Amino acid sequence: MSGFTRPLARLIDQFERLPGIGPRTAQRLALHLLRQPEEQIHSFADALLAARSQVGQCQTCFHLSAEPTCEICRNPERSIGLLCVVADSRDLLALERTREYAGNYHVLGGLISPMDGIGPEMLQISSLVNRVAADDIKEVILALTPSVEGDTTSLYLARLLKPFTDVSRIAYGLPVGSELEYADDVTLSRALEGRRAVE
């Protein structure tokens, strides 16, 4: 990287490897850190190393956790009869932000994608089936991305889980504030399929 001394160029390069960080943002972050007091840099580095070494997966739902069981699974106020299946922890956190869901989760760790060499055996699917079969789960909600991989995974899971419990899938449709004329065909089709009665 021209114009930057080697240690700074290495730092910028590391920031650029992060998702969603382009060259200009990487430069801004690196230059910002250089202006911080040394103790703050040490705190940042310690937090990064601690998170890497201490954060693992919940043994029940496979969400990120520093404990063997995450806070959500330990919460006695959550509805144990309701289980929401998500692809990864980012999806779980998005659902939690809505404050509408009060059940438990199961994080698959990805989606079935033969093109990428990801088969069902590479995901937390067998543990999901075992969990649903053993626990008193009344309904499994599939909250997977509306894509070829998400649809494939949803169909696969539905076939496995229907003998044990009710299986539903979140509705997909138009985002709030969007215009119909700009929506793609698939989104409009999903919006029509997911329609409900006006109360």
Characterise the protein shown here.
It contains eight helices and six strands, in the order αααββαβαβαβαβα. The protein starts with 5 loop residues before the first helix and ends in a 6-residue tail after the last helix. The protein has a four-stranded parallel sheet. A two-stranded antiparallel ribbon has the order 1-2. It is α/β, with parallel strands linked by helices and 199 residues long. Helices cover 44% and strands 13% of the residues. α1 (6-16) crosses α2. β3, α5 and β4 form a beta-alpha-beta unit.
Short description, anyone?
With 199 residues, the chain is α/β, with parallel strands linked by helices.
Per-chain topology:
Elements: H1 6-16, H2 23-34, H3 38-54, E1 56-57, E2 64-65, H4 71-74, E3 79-86, H5 89-98, E4 103-107, H6 125-134, E5 139-142, H7 148-161, E6 166-169, H8 185-193
Parallel strand pairs: 3-4, 3-5, 5-6
Antiparallel strand pairs: 1-2
Helix pairs in contact: 1-2
